[in-house]
Amino acid sequence: MLKLENVSKFYYNKGIIASGFTKVNLELKIEEFVAIIGESGSGKSTLLNVISGLDSYEEGEMYINGKETSHYQEKDFENYRRKYIANIFQNFNLINSYTVYQNVELVLLLNGYKKHKVKKKILDIIEQVGLTKFKNTKVSKLSGGQKQRVAIARAMVKDTPIIVADEPTGNLDTESAKEVIEILKKVAKDKLVVVVTHNIEQIEDQATRIIKMHDGRIIQNIEKKKITKEPEIIESKYTNISIINKFRLGIRNTFNIASKFLLLFAVFFFMSAAILTEYASFQMSEEETTDDGYSIAFRDLSENRIIINKKDRTSFTNEDYEKIKQLPNIDYIVEDDIFIDEQIPILRNDMNIYGNMSDIVNFEGNVDFGRMPENEDEIILKINKNHFYITNRLDEVLNKTFSVPKIQGTNAYSNDDTIKDLIIVGIQTYDNSNSYECKFYVSKNVLNELRNNVNKNYSNIKVLLNNKYEQYTVEPNSNVPSGKAIVDDELKYQFKNNRIKNQPLSIYLNNIYYQEELNLSISNTYTKSNFKRTLGLEKYDSNRYKIFINTDDYNSLFNKPSYQSSVYVTDVETIDETITQLGNLGLNPKKVTDFKVSQGEAYLRIIKIIKVIVTIVLIIVLFFISYLIIKIILKSRNIYYATLRMLGATYKNVRRILDIELFINSTLSYIVLLFFIYAIKINIINLEYISKITEFLGPKEYILMYVILIAISGLISRKFAKKLFKNTTINTYNEEV
Ligand code: ADP
Ligand code: MG
């Protein structure tokens, strides 16, 4: 069966060569019971490991069943071990977190047997080693003797022609040792059993051959009983582990060590949570608001300008403005300071003029052309006197109607969608070689309308329906009664018994200035057939899932006084005093020059790049920290996976089983995280900041995060398996003890 000719084994360790054993010649047959003795360090274990294909040899020839093996690759030895070898170790190498039954079963699962077909066989063998009472006990709870009997059961169930035992009684008391040897003898009948022992008396009667080793050489080889004719060798039958069994083991491993499960779970949880919040807060900071709630896209950076909002975040009242005007050193107030900074175009045919909107009350001096406005939609245009684009065609400008387009965000205007028509009745010119900016002086009502429009186009709207937030389009419709909403009939399927009528529906609006909530109830639904009748509208197709609410309700969301204004001081020298005084009025005052955006676009771009880099670096650091922690956690599993390998698992098997474990664990932790976020969103858990930043996360981000998580798990299991298989099984064991 086994034949060694001049086989030597060397260890290379940091340039030093040590000899495991030298020039061993040996022939062993089935039905032999071989005892190997010798003092510690004489090479017994090394010999056993080479025989059992757990370790390589460097010199000579080893024949297995007549076949020479010096050209064998790791794969061939794997194959050999599965067909021929069962190992028993001094320190058991069992899976402590598995029960007795599971330990024995593991061999069979790994070698392609079906779970339900092996039950009887396993119970039989457990009976033979006398552990029936303990079959469902975790191995960690057993005594040393019992553990070794489990190891023997595991070797028996594998049903290989060779059993190799390295000091199986080394860690046992005399009584247990005796029992173990008894069982081994029983098992040994039609097999080749090789036992290393330091206590030869125990097996002397039974042994058919006694080999004595000294200093890496065999110095005695006594054959007590000659086997003349070797019986037919029956290889152990195996196939590859089935997918179901991989899952079975993956699931078992996920949960069988509670502390490991929780640790991995926590790491996955916090890694995803940290990456998501980091990403979301980056997205949030991209919005043009500071932590104090200012809009910060300032164009007018005059030294005498102070930006104010209210400490309680409410809108300004006339009373507020009156109080401010009472202060010394106040030149004038611009109530809607967004119009100072927002260049809004007015359009007519092929002409467009960009300028700042300003309240007509701030107009000083006289018009150079035309007259002062008399109606609400009449305005004055203020331009540089060298603005020839306009001065050369005054007759096309003066007393002509221009329209203001819908404002759709910074510098995005729709030419088709106009919100207001204005007539330029007067023009004032100024003389300045540095600035060509235009200004429109308009009535307060026009400013209000424009502000509504700004509010509309800078707002996020979320709809809470059936406890879920969705981003439906909300539109005003005069057919809808006040306090009610009319929604797509399709939405009724979200409700029990399709009962959608009278269900509550809330609209949440937020923009850089304020938040608003509108609580409505559903009065009706629309379908294709009743669409026109219910809402008085023609086109149905594009209206899927739109939510229609009363026009006044709708306008109430946007029809707001100003939330941010600007104060211009007369004397810049004493501006700090004015700031203190404004602060005393319950305001947040800040000099526009303090917003540090004065360097303009380039500066902002650099800030943005830095923010992107910091975010990416943080995410990478998080990733590596998690990776390291997971690696450390997994390292504690080296023995487990080395044992799988010893029992016949291939690189791919190990990877797959680990994949499944990490997949289940990361998926579970991600699901819990999503529930957690959901609970925050619907205010079961009150974490305002998280709730706020999660608004920046959509299904796309959540799915991407999950994909990343699974990819990380896969990567980790790949690296772990690679590293494990770089080492020999025996080295992995040795490193751990
Ligand atoms: P035994 O089992 O008889 O006590 P071993 O087979 O464990 O002896 O060791 C035989 C020799 O090989 C010893 O000199 C030991 O130091 C050496 N040896 C064993 N394992 C290694 C290893 N991994 N690296 C280097 N030397 C080793
Ligand atoms: Mg040894």
Walkthrough of the structure:
Residues 288-293 have low confidence and may be disordered. Helix content is 39%, strand content 24%. The strands form five sheets. Strands 13, 14, 15, 16, 17, 18 and 19 form a seven-stranded mixed sheet that branches. A seven-stranded mixed sheet has the order 21-20-24-25-23-26-22. With 737 residues, the chain is an alpha/beta fold. β9 (209-214) and β10 form a beta hairpin. It is elongated. Adenosine-5'-diphosphate binds next to β1, β2 and α1.
Q: What ligands are attached or bound here?
A: adenosine-5'-diphosphate, magnesium ion
Low-confidence stretches: 288-293
> What structural class should be given to the helix and strand makeup?
alpha/beta
- Rounded Rg: 41 Å
Tell me how many strands there are: 28
SS field, number of helical segments: 22
**Net shape:** elongated
Helical proportion?
Answer: 25-40%
Q: Could you give a short description of this structure?
A:
This protein is α/β, with parallel strands linked by helices and 737 residues long. Adenosine-5'-diphosphate binds at residues 11, 13, 18, 20, 38, 40-46, 734. Magnesium ion binds at residues 44-45.
